C-alpha cells in the first residue's frame, strides 16, 4: 500500500525572507575574465616598474573591494549562515546538517528496531527492550512515527504502521499516567492520522485509547486524576502528594482532546478539556501564576510552589496553544497567557552574574515568598513559546506590520530571545560535553565567577528537546542563522557524546548520567536508556531547524507539548470555549495591550456575565463529601469571601 505522508501538504507557505540567502554569483565580469589594466608600453623598464607597483596596488585594492562588498552586502543579509558556510569550508550546508539529523534518527531507530522492536523502553547499551506493563503501549513507535513521516522514512513508517495496526491494543489491565499517555500516545496517533493523509488506522487507535482514558475526568470537579486503568477506564488518584494531580498534567490534555473532538465530532471530549480550564481559572491565580499541584476533588490548588519547570511548564504552554489552535478565535486563552507572562516577568525573572544571563527561577513558598535561582532544562521551552506568542506564528517582520503588534509583544519576543540564549549557554558553557545538565542553579552573587552551577544530582542529560525546540521557533520567526549554528553545535555534541557504537559498528544513542565528566578512558558516562522524546521531539525539532522548505508552517500548525503537530482549525457552535471568566479588576491594567504608534486600539478585557456553575458544583461536591468539606474549610472561607466581595 502506498502511503501519503502528507509532506506536500506540510510544505506550504514558504517565507523567503527567512530562508538562507544564496551566495551572490554576480561579481563584475571583468574581475573574472579580463583585467582592464593592461600595460601600455611593455618595453619601458621604468614604466614597467611603475606599472608593476601600480598593478600590485590595484590588485590589493581590487581584493579589498571584493572583500568589502562581500562583507557588507552578503553578510548583512538576515541569514548570513550560507555565506558563513562558504567562507568556512569545514561547516556543512544546512541541507547537509538536516540530512545528518535524519541519519542520526535512522541509526538510532534501526538499533531500536533490531534490538527492542515493539517494546516501550529501549536500553541501547544492553541492547534490550522492556515494557512498562504486561503488554506494550507503543511508547516508542507511536511517539516516533510522525517524525519518521516528516523525515520521509517510508519503509520505517510502513513497519511502524503495521505494528500499530496489528499489535497495538490498549484494552488491558494496567494503570498509565494520564498526561504522558495523552501527549505521547494520543498526540502521536492524531498527528500520524493527519500527516498520513487521514489513514484511519491511526484515528481508530486514537479513539480506542481515548475511550480507555475517559474515567480520569469523572472526578468531582472534572480535573483529571493522575492515572487511569486502561481496561476499566477508571481514574486513579495519585498515591502521593495528598492525591493531587500536577497542574501541568491536568492542563496539558486540551489540544489533544480538542483535536480529537474536531476529528470525530464527539463534543464531549471538547467539554472535558474546557471544564478543566474553567475549574482551574475559578481559583483566580494571582498574577497568572499557579502552584504545581491541584486537587481533583476540590479543584483547588495544593501547596504553594510555583515554577515553569516540572509539573508547572506546559500549563503555561497550553494557554497560548489553545488560543493558536482555534485560529486565534478565543481571546480568553490569550488573555490568560498574557497575564501569566506578566506574572513571570514580574515575579520569576532575574539576571545572573557576571554575564547577565536572563533566567527564570522558582517560588518555593509562592508569591511573596523567597526566590530560588534554580532552573530546570524543562523551562527552556519558554523562549520559543514567548516568540510564537508574540507573533502568532508569523515571521517577526510580518508580525511587526500587523495592527495588533505592540510593546508587550516586542518585549515578550526579546525576553524569549534572551532566555533561549541562556539555554544555549547551558550547553555551550558545560565542559567537557557541551551538553546541558537537567537542572542548573544561577548565580546572583557578585563575588562569584560563574553564571551557574550544577549540583551533583542534576548532572544528567536525557537528550531533552526544550532548547532545540526554542531554537527552531526562533529561527523560523527571525531567519537569524545564529539559532541554526547554536542548534548545530548542540547536535554535534549529542552525536559526539551520546552516540553508542557496538562491536558490530551499529549505532544507537543514549542518555548521559553526567555531562560534566568522562570516564577515565575518555568515554562518555552513558545512562542506558533512549527516551522516546529523543525521537519524537529532539531530532524532529533539529530536523525542522535545518529545514529550508518551511515544513509545517507555524501559521498553520500548532505542536503539542510532545512535538506532535496538529493543524489549526476554526471554532463553531459546538466547538468553542463555552465559558467566560470573571475579570479580576486588579489584573485588568496588567493585561491591557499598549498600542504602539499607529497600532491597534487597546484591547481592554470586558467584564463578562459570571458563570457560577463551577462554584455550585464544587459546593455540592463538598456537601456530598463532608470529609472533603472539612479538609477544605479554609478554601471554602476564602471562596465565600471572594463571592461576598464580588457582590459588593
Ligand atoms: C516531554 O515529554 C514533553 O515535552 C513534556 O511537556 C515535558 N518534557 C518532556 C521532554 O523533556
TrEMBL record:
It comes from Candida theae. GO terms for molecular function: calcium ion binding; mannosyl-oligosaccharide 1,2-alpha-mannosidase activity. Belongs to the glycosyl hydrolase 47 family. Its EC number is 3.2.1.-. The active site is at residues 180, 313, 438, 466. Residues 590-648 are annotated as: Disordered. One of its GO terms (biological process) is carbohydrate metabolic process. This is alpha-1,2-Mannosidase. It holds the Pfam family Glyco_hydro_47. Keywords: Calcium, Disulfide bond, Glycosidase, Hydrolase, Membrane, Metal-binding, Transmembrane, Transmembrane helix. Residues 613-648 have a biased composition (Basic and acidic residues). Ca(2+) binds at residue 561.
Amino acid at each position: 500500500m502506498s502511503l501519503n505522508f502528507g509532506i506536500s501538504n506540510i510544505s506550504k507557505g514558504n517565507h523567503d525572507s527567512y530562508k538562507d540567502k544564496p551566495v551572490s554569483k554576480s561579481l563584475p565580469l571583468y574581475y573574472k575574465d579580463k583585467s582592464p589594466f593592461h600595460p601600455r608600453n611593455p618595453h619601458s623598464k621604468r614604466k614597467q616598474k611603475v606599472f608593476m607597483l601600480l598593478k600590485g596596488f590595484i590588485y590589493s585594492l581590487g581584493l579589498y573591494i571584493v572583500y568589502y562588498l562581500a562583507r557588507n552586502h552578503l553578510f548583512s543579509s538576515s541569514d548570513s549562515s550560507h555565506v558563513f558556510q562558504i567562507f568556512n569550508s569545514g561547516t556543512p550546508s544546512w541541507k547537509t546538517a538536516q540530512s545528518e539529523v535524519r541519519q542520526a534518527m535512522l541509526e538510532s531507530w534501526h538499533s531500536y528496531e533490531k534490538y527492542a522492536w515493539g517494546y516501550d523502553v529501549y536500553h541501547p547499551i544492553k541492547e534490550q527492550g522492556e515494557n512498562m506493563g504486561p503488554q506494550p503501549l507503543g511508547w516508542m513507535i507511536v511517539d516516533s512515527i510522525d517524525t519518521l513521516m516528516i523525515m520521509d522514512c517510508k519503509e520505517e513508517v510502513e513497519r511502524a504502521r503495521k505494528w500499530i495496526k496489528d499489535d497495538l491494543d490498549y484494552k488491558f489491565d494496567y494503570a498509565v499516567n494520564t498526561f504522558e499517555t495523552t501527549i505521547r500516545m494520543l498526540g502521536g496517533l492524531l498527528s500520524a492520522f493527519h500527516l498520513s493523509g487521514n489513514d484511519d488506522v491511526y484515528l481508530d487507535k486514537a479513539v480506542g485509547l481515548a475511550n480507555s482514558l475517559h474515567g480520569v475526568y469523572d472526578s468531582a470537579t472534572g480535573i483529571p486524576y493522575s492515572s487511569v486503568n486502561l481496561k476499566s477506564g477508571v481514574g486513579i488518584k495519585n498515591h502521593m502528594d495528598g492525591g493531587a494531580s500536577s497542574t501541568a498534567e491536568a492542563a496539558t490534555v486540551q489540544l489533544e482532546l480538542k483535536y480529537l473532538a474536531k476529528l470525530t465530532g464527539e463534543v464531549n471530549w471538547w467539554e472535558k478539556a474546557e471544564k478543566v480550564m474553567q475549574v482551574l481559572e475559578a481559583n483566580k491565580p494571582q498574577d497568572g501564576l499557579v502552584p504545581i499541584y491541584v486537587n481533583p476533588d476540590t479543584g483547588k490548588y495544593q501547596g504553594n510552589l510555583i515554577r515553569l519547570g516540572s509539573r508547572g511548564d506546559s500549563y503555561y504552554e497550553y494557554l497560548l496553544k489553545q488560543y493558536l489552535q482555534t485560529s486565534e478565535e478565543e481571546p480568553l486563552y490569550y488573555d490568560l497567557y498574557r497575564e501569566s507572562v506578566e506574572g513571570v516577568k514580574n515575579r520569576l525573572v532575574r539576571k545572573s552574574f557576571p554575564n547577565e544571563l536572563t533566567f527564570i527561577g522558582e517560588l518555593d513558598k509562592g508569591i511573596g515568598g523567597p526566590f530560588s535561582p534554580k532552573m530546570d532544562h524543562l523551562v527552556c521551552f519558554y523562549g520559543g513559546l514567548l516568540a510564537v506568542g508574540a507573533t502568532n506564528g508569523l515571521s517577526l517582520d510580518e508580525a511587526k506590520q500587523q495592527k495588533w503588534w505592540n510593546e508587550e509583544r516586542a518585549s515578550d519576543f526579546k525576553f524569549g530571545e534572551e532566555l533561549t540564549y541562556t539555554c544555549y549557554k547551558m550547553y555551550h558553557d558545560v565542559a567537557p560535553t557541551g551538553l546541558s545538565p537537567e537542572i542548573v542553579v544561577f548565580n546572583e552573587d557578585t563575588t562569584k565567577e560563574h553564571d551557574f552551577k550544577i549540583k551533583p544530582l542534576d548532572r544528567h542529560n536525557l537528550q531533552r528537546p526544550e532548547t532545540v525546540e526554542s531554537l527552531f521557533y526562533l529561527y523560523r520567526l527571525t531567519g537569524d542563522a545564529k539559532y541554526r549554528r547554536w542548534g548545530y553545535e548542540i547536535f554535534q555534541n549529542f552525536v559526539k557524546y551520546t552516540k553508542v557504537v557496538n562491536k558490530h559498528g551499529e549505532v544507537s544513542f543514549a542518555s548521559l548520567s553526567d555531562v560534566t565528566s568522562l570516564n577515565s578512558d575518555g568515554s562518555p558516562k552513558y545512562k542506558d536508556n533512549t527516551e522516546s522524546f529523543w525521537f519524537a521531539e529532539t531530532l524532529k525539532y533539529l530536523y525542522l531547524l535545518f529545514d529550508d522548505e518551511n515544513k509545517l508552517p507555524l501559521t498553520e500548525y500548532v505542536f503539542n507539548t510532545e512535538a506532535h503537530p496538529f493543524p489549526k482549525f476554526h471554532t463553531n457552535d459546538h466547538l468553542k470555549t463555552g465559558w467566560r471568566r470573571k475579570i479580576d479588576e486588579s489584573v485588568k491594567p496588567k493585561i491591557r495591550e499598549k498600542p504602539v504608534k499607529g497600532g491597534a486600539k487597546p484591547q481592554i478585557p470586558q467584564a463578562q456575565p459570571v458563570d457560577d456553575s463551577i462554584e455550585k458544583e464544587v459546593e455540592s461536591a463538598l456537601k456530598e463529601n463532608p470529609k472533603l468539606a472539612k479538609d477544605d474549610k479554609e478554601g471554602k472561607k476564602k471562596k465565600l469571601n471572594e463571592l461576598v466581595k464580588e457582590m459588593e
